[in-house]
Design goal:
Elements (H helix, E strand, L loop, with lengths): L13 E3 L7 E3 L4 E5 L2 E8 L4 E6 L2 E6 L12 H6 L9 H6 L5 H6 L3 H6 L24 H5 L8 H6 L5 H6 L3 H6 L12
Antiparallel strand pairs: 1-2, 3-4, 5-6
Amino acid sequence: DGTCTNLANNPEDYFKSSPALKGCRKCESGYGFGTPDDTRSKCFPCQSGYISKVLDGKTQCVVDPTCVECDNTKTQYMENNGYTCDSEESNWMIANRCNANQFWVTNKYCRLTCYEGGVGYGDGECCPRVSCTKCSNEPNQSMTNNGQTCAGHSNSIERKCYENDNWRVKQFCQQSCFDAGRGYEGVFCCA
């Protein structure tokens, strides 16, 4: 019947390997069958910033609620030169300054990038980076025919976006809808 019975300790951590196989296997603590958005059939280690948790009867890797929201505050030098903590020009600074330079440690510059590079400040695990999408801002055909842009057409943004079936399917004005707090499900636009 697809269930596993008479198992010790944490029966919710046991799952049928496949309908073709008899028996069950255990997904150990710290491992999960992907994330809620990533349905894997094999048990994998949860990556840094994630923990295993039973959701909907299946162990999955979810964001660790004890993780620290880390920012990427740039140094004045980086700011003056147009660098970000993730830019190629900053690689040397990340490798050599993060937890090795007291000024950086005190100010926690590039905290997330330092943590991801294995040279964090030792003050907790940073939450995983939220992946973002480079969003388009394409208007629908009617707006285009009338010379209107997404940014200059707040009336459509207020009435359409995720509430209109056609807009939702074609994701018109992605960036403007996101910026107005009316973005499409599963789409997190990059700044």
